[in-house]
Amino acid sequence: VEEYAEFLGIDPRKEEHLMWIAREGVEAPVPPPWKAVQDSNGDVYYFNFSTGESIWDHPEDANYRELVDEYRKKGKPPAGYESWRRYEFEMKSSSGSGALSA
User: Fold this and answer.
1) Helix H segments across 1-102?
2) How far apart are CA 72 and CA 2, in angstroms?
3) In 3D, which of 1, 97, 26 has the Cα closest to residue 88?
4) What value does the mean pLDDT of the chain take?
5) Under 8 Å between Cβ of 24 and 33
6) CA–CA distance, 74 with 85 (Å, rounded to integer)
7) What is residue 78's predicted lDDT score, i.e. its pLDDT?
8) Mode of pairing for the β-strands spanning 54-55 and 44-48
9) Predicted TM-score (pTM) above 0.70
10) Which domains does the chain have, with CATH numbers?
């Protein structure tokens, strides 16, 4: 997770409040129509079977980088919350709106 955080531009020691983005990104499934494929050296790349496009980075990496930028601009979350995502989730839950979408 720490390595992926650094890949996204998060400093794991100074931006602990953004680490949820890296944790979520590490576990993110490959969205259809993309598939994870190994080359002859065992390296993983992503292939879009609809378009024939192949890329080395996970198809969702750009979205996670955008989340980093968005939440970095917000600064640290309110006291008592480990992340803005947790704060927003609890505020929505307490207002009866349900869970946040990613």
Assistant:
1) 2-8, 19-27, 61-74, 84-94
2) 17
3) 97
4) 90
5) no
6) 11
7) 81
8) antiparallel
9) yes
10) 2-94 (2.20.70.10)
